[in-house]
Specification:
seven-stranded mixed β-sheet, 25 helices, ten-stranded mixed β-sheet, single chain
């Protein structure tokens, strides 16, 4: 990166640097200004259509020092995707180094690609000022600087300058303007700069929106201390908050949100207070304290000082640290005995976050006792990110939003193939979308369950929003193969409207490609993909598959033996139906009289109706989904007979296995591997007979059997993968799908595969669940469309459906 301006240190030369990546809104221009002045260089720096442009002039020694500092000393949130440096002719009309104004003509920003910076937690320097009684921003709940605060949630268009954000309505006071213009100040060109005098205000209001007199923070803390529920406006939307150590407060919040069992997240006063609630691994603890500040799911400690109702039926607790000034002020005002607050999304189940104050009155007014809000508008909702603490391994993302999105991820490419612009609309649950640019794929924030009308409206808005923000004009669209997904239906309409080709990507192929993209894998892999549901190329329900896959196509080589799920989608809620389907596989027509069936469905008429449906295969859906096997086993062991939220039964089963303790519980195989028409099939009937053989299993027995199930399933997949690796010569195995959010299964399977000499690819960047589908769609569609003209794309699209292999 160091420029070789001249072999003679006294000769003056000039260099132009163009830096693409996350370089706007992260204090990069002030940083460049300071190091250029330190190196005594002439020139300028400015935001540009491709990122940041720098021109510097000086001797070879000065230019070398500058380049090294640029590379090694840049702010922590800066990331470079591409750097170009070229010599240009020296100038004689400069007397120093300056920050130029960004080009502001719309046509100059209609092309080029630059990252939009993510929202980040308040920094240490701002916190010091927040609690300094002599600082003019003492107690200001919206304090920020170039190193922290809102970015993606407030930007309306690029370039990232104050007039292009929701802060445009707040003119700077003289003191703020002076800091904004001072290159030596930490708030130099900090676009959201504000203070008590000129900035947005924090208020405590009644659910109707009427202001409550007195100090807003003090009064809000008193409400929380009394066990009341508060709606709190943060960076990307509202939270609902209550004391985590008060049974009545948590129960009241559950009643208000109509959320009986799904775990709540907890915000802790400090890293030390979080350490009293959960067992944090070093990597997870470091990430939790980083500017990204996600929710970390970690094992709950015995005697943790939060009520069990915060996270029932699971061994984990989701903890995070305060990341806005308002959060820090609240904890400072709370009694030292209150170190943890429930901090859950400000919405009803499956709705998108509330971001607008007027909307908060309408949608949250009946869910809280007061609202602590501010009048800085939020342009788009950005939920909290969530990761799982994986101990010694890197944390596993399960929801990618605040602190991570939007961000550009590289896509694998072969040779010199270019990436044409495209849109990938993801799946239907845990939806994210992705834009393909010349540099890679830009992933959106978590958009949620599209079955909810408000979420679907938000999804449609997000498509246009992201395309506008990144100046992307898609030449093609990629969507899930499932014909009934709302995202796929919308993709069809968009493709007709934009007159661009539409590529259909099979659900589990996209899962496989998502983990391949993370690891820049272009060669074929054996992909074990386990989830709850995905539309198969044979029009049946898949979800427990082993694919031989690359970024163009795939072939299914193995699967779990399909179940007959009575009632189809109803079985995803009523886990007893999954259990009866498993028992039918294991015991045949006598299933109705089996003691386990009687325990599951004591009512004889209901039991006979469901088992008759299975026997006669009436109104049953054939499914190889691993998620439904987890549901059925959880019901068999008496852990969960109804999924009130997605993966509830699977989480309960994992929690029981965790309580049993570590160690491998699979001594001899309790499964069979059969060749069915050239497709290997894992038959779990021996395991199901073992699990259902206990009349009234004790708690310890249930925990041991849960561990046995996890370890037998891992052993089955490892056995099949080893056999297929020998047959195909492919020695790399990729793990993806929502079931691989299960830590025990993932770690046991990884260990077994590695012992067999196989390389294992796991997720570290995007979730293994459907939140990562859009990246997989991007990797596949980009590879298919690479180096094709628009005419060729249209022709190729006609053959995409036929290219899918069963």
């Amino acid at each position: 990166m160091c420029p070789a301006a001249s072999s003679l240190s006294g000769v003056v030369a000039r260099r132009r640097f163009v830096l693409e990546g996350q370089v706007q809104g992260v204090g990069f221009r002030p940083f460049v200004y300071r190091i250029a002045r330190r190196c005594r260089l002439q020139g300028f720096v400015r935001n540009d259509i491709d990122g940041v442009t720098i021109e510097v002039q000086g001797t070879a020694v000065q230019l070398g020092r500058f380049a090294r500092a640029l590379e090694k000393e840049h702010p922590p949130l800066v990331s470079f995707h591409q750097i170009t440096a070229a010599p240009i002719s020296p100038r004689n009309d400069e007397t120093g180094f300056f920050i130029q104004q960004s080009h502001d003509r719309a046509e100059q920003w209609s092309t080029g690609q630059v990252d939009v910076t993510v929202d980040i937690a308040v920094c240490r320097e701002c916190l010091d000022e927040l609690f300094d009684e002599h600082d003019r921003r003492f107690g200001y709940g919206l304090i920020n600087c170039t190193n922290c605060g809102p970015r993606f949630s407030i930007i309306r268009r690029v370039p990232y300058d104050r007039p292009n954000t929701t802060m445009a309505r707040f003119p700077m006071c003289e003191d703020c303007r002076r800091q904004y213009a001072d290159p030596t100040d930490r708030r130099f060109h900090a676009q959201p700069i504000a203070c008590h005098r000129c900035g947005p205000k924090v208020e405590l209001v009644e659910p109707t929106g009427r202001r409550i007199d007195g100090d807003s923070i003090t009064n809000a803390a008193q409400y929380l201390a009394q066990g009341r529920v508060l709606a709190i406006k943060g960076l990307g939307g509202f939270h609902l908050a209550a004391r985590a150590d008060a049974t009545a407060a948590v129960a009241h919040l559950r009643e208000l949100k109509h959320r009986d069992y799904k775990p709540f997240a907890v915000m802790c006063r400090s890293r030390q207070s979080a350490g009293k609630l959960v067992a944090l691994g070093d990597q997870a603890a470091e990430l939790m304290q980083s500017p990204r500040c996600p929710i970390v799911l970690a094992p709950r400690l015995a005697g943790a000082g939060v009520v069990k109702q915060v996270a029932p039926q699971t061994h984990r607790l989701g903890v995070m640290l305060p990341y806005t000034p308002i959060h820090h002020l609240l904890f400072a005002a709370l009694d030292s005995g209150c170190d943890a607050l429930v901090m859950t999304s400000g919405n009803l189940t499956d709705e998108p976050l509330v971001i607008d104050n007027h909307e908060a009155v309408a949608r949250l007014g009946g869910l809280c006792d007061a609202m602590l809000w501010h009048d800085r508008p939020i342009e788009r909702c950005v939920d909290d990110s969530v990761v799982i603490d994986m101990g010694e391994s890197a944390p596993l993302p399960v929801r990618r939003a605040r602190g991570y999105a939007p961000s550009l991820l590289p896509l694998p490419r072969s040779g010199d193939g270019f990436l044409s612009e495209g849109l990938c609309v993801g799946g239907e649950l845990k939806n994210t979308i992705a834009l393909v640019q010349s540099q890679g794929a830009v992933l959106s924030q978590h958009l949620g369950d599209l079955k909810h009308p408000l979420a679907f409206d938000y999804f449609k808005k997000a498509v246009g929003d992201l395309c506008d923000l990144f100046r992307n004009k898609p030449q093609w669209i990629a969507a899930d193969l499932h014909p009934m997904y709302l995202s796929t239906s919308y993709a069809r309409r968009l493709a007709r409207h934009w007159r661009v080709p539409l590529a259909f990507v099979q659900h589990h192929h996209a899962h496989a490609a998502s983990v391949m993209a993370e690891h820049n894998q272009t060669e074929p892999v054996l992909a074990i993909v386990c989830d709850g549901v995905g539309f198969g190329a044979d029009h049946t329900i898949w979800g427990g598959e082993l694919l031989l896959a690359d970024l163009i196509d795939f072939k299914r080589l193995a699967r779990l033996q399909p179940l007959r799920l009575p009632g189809g989608d109803a079985a995803a809620k009523d886990t007893r139906r999954c259990a009866l389907a498993l028992l039918y596989q294991a015991f045949g027509d006598q299933v109705d009289q089996h003691p386990a069936s009687r325990r599951l469905v004591p009512d004889s008429a209901e039991r006979q109706l469901i088992t008759a449906m299975i026997r006669r295969n009436v109104n049953c859906a054939a499914s190889s989904a691993a998620g439904r096997v987890f549901d059925g086993v959880a019901a068999l062991l008496g852990l969960c007979q109804h999924n009130d939220y997605e993966a509830q039964a699977g989480m309960a089963l994992e929690a029981a296995a965790y309580e049993h303790g570590p160690g491998f519980e699979a001594s001899e195989p309790m499964f069979q591997v059969k060749d069915v028409g050239g497709l290997l099939q894992i038959d779990l009937c021996p395991l199901i007979r073992r699990l259902s053989g206990h009349t009234l299993p004790s708690k310890a027995t249930v925990q041991r059997l849960a561990a046995v199930f996890h370890d037998q399933l891992a052993l089955a997949w490892a056995t099949v993968a080893e056999q297929l690796a020998i047959e195909t010569g492919v020695r790399t195995v990729a793990l993806s799908g929502g079931v691989f959010c299960n830590q025990r299964l993932t770690e046991q399977l990884t260990t077994l595969l590695q012992r067999r000499g196989l390389r294992v690819l796991r997720h570290h960047v995007v979730p293994p669940n459907d939140g990562g589908l859009s990246l997989g769609q991007a990797a596949i569609a980009a590879a298919r469309f690479s180096r094709k003209t628009d005419h060729q794309l249209r022709i190729a699209n006609r053959h995409l459906r036929g290219a899918l292999c069963v």
